[in-house]
Amino acid sequence: MAAPNKGRRPAAGGQSKPGRALAFILIAMVALTGGMFWSHHTTPRLGIDLAGGTSITLKAKAEPGQESAINKTNMETAVQIMNRRVNGLGVTEAEVQTQGNDNIIVNIPKGTDSEQARQQVGQTAKLYFRPVLTAAQGSPTPTPSGSPSPSATPSAGGKGTPKGTPSASGKGTPSAKSSPQGRAVTDALKASPTPSASKSGSPTPAPSSSADAQAAAAKLQQQFTALDCDPKKGQAAKAGEGAKSTDPTVACSQDGTEKYILGPAEVDGTDVAKSQAVINQNGQWIVQMDFTGGGSKKFASITGKLSQQQYPNNRFAIALDNQVVSAPTVSSTLSGSAEISGSFNQKSAQDLANVLSYGALPLSFQEQSVTTVTAALGADQLHAGLIAGAIGLGLVIIYLVAYYRGLALIAILSLVVSAILTYTIMALLGPGIGFALNLPAVCGAIVAIGITADSFIVYFERIRDEIREGRTLRPAVERAWPRARRTILVSDFVSFLAAAVLFIVTVGKVQGFAFTLGLTTLLDVVVVFLFTKPVMTLLARRPFFASGHPWSGLDPKRLGAKPPLRRARRTTSAPVDNPKEA
Hints:
Distance between the termini: 22 Å
Shape: elongated
Largest sheet: 5 strands, mixed, barrel
Order of helices and strands: HHEHEEHEHHEEEEEHEEEHEHHHHHHH
Strand order of the largest sheet: 4-6-5-11-10
Radius of gyration: 36 Å
Helix content: 40-55%
Mean pLDDT: 75
């Protein structure tokens, strides 16, 4: 009995059910296309070179007596922080660069919220936690220092029991015999329950004499009394300007409803390890901050002292660029983390968390000019690039048809699937991570055509090699796949590794090229595994390909196939002596 033909068994790694893979990639294509139309972003976001945008010029401004702070090191640090704020993952195509000794140019592509970007790049983001010495309404009309705030007090988060309103135990209840504002500030300056800590951890001493304390309190009280926190008046942004972190200062709340006299800073932004926007149990957006080890100890110390005070001296203000974002009350010692709550929506909470995460700018900046950038030059270059891409694609298709004939149909269909996946993903990445398509990214997509076509060629040639060895098409398709698969994976891994390294070590527009090249390389693997191989398996069952039609590209005669090796039967010419035995 003849042994079964082992060549007809699918080799290890063969695909016995190609319909499943095709159904999976079809569902993925439908889902991505549906998501693209559902998000109303049917075209990829374009970079500033293709769509134009906004150019912002910022001029560095040093504090009085600190003019030497405007130096190369601080300017480069500011550029890095601004770039992280507006460029996130590095694919939004926003550009931040220095110009001269004290100017920074920020280019923001069209489609980006330019107003939001303007606020983020220019915001110094100096964060301090200061004790509240006095609080009053935001108008310049004097009010008793112990009067409760008209606005709701936001909550403080952390270990312990945070309270959003004055405590009912009596500590938070305003005293009917509260002293006037001037005496409250003087007492606070003379013997503050929250001595400020320097960088070395040693407390900063109070004024050397009672007269000095009264003079300092009087000056601070005058600033506080005259301060009008109405945002339309313009005083709120300048309140406490130039004050050091170790000095008391005046400040306004961001909405202008309250004004404060704040003590020296106890904790600053460098003590914050991480910040993120989250939704609390009440369904409100807040910014949650986690402290470093040293910051957690400082925060526990300040909240432990504040929890023993009466209202409003049991409050601490979270001041960002000398504007109070939140001023919660404290009823117990807190450590580890804190929350900034207020009138946040998702966008404003995420913006604040983003600014705090990337740190404070080493310098203050003043906006000098805002101009609109046109895309005339980029549009011409894009037009030329698309023509070059079309010519290249046309030459690839001509080569495939001339050399591979019927197999070219599989290659063209695979290229179409890859193009659909690439386009829909790029369109969705725009609103998702801020990805913007620029000219280098277009070049990366054009280069990917060759990478994808190369994978098809590797597989087709492996199949042809099997046919040349004398195998029929169906076993040739399955036996060729494991060998082709290894080659394709190694080749794509090298391309992806090169794209990843390029993305990490470069900045600006080159990152767009690297990102697109890496994305299309990954999609090449997906298309070859889930589309090209299954389609080839199905077409191998069709008579046109299975019979080796001359136009199938798999004609055994054209490929110079060897005839199947068969063992010849042995014959003998010896005469038979005994017919009965024969």
